[in-house]
Amino acid sequence: MNLLPDILQQAVSVFHDSKLTDIHKLIGELLEEDAFFSKSHQEMRFQECFAVSPEIDGLLDAARKLYLQTVEEIYLVRIFNSIFVPFGWSFITLTSCNLIDGTKYGKSARYSN
Fold first, then answer.
1. How far apart are CA 78 and CA 1, in angstroms?
2. What pLDDT was estimated at residue 6?
3. 110: pLDDT strictly greater than 60
4. pTM assigned to the model
């Protein structure tokens, strides 16, 4: 009574499709292997942004770069505010006086009289 292995072999052959292996291979080429599911909303956003391999789509690469720059700027604003707010300064005050890039009121501090 060797019916069970025969039935299993028939089921495997019915459900096995060579197109699925081709699709799996294409997905493996497009997606990063280290992308994973996360319960954290912020981490999930990061994973969604970087799940697709680089150099697949130029617009996606540009969006990634913009995303990273925005996150970095937000981080820097938080650091500046944590340092300067106790002294009555904020990031907006510093940028309006142009103290961050070494100038004050549009004139270079290096060349002022």
1. 72
2. 81
3. no
4. 0.52
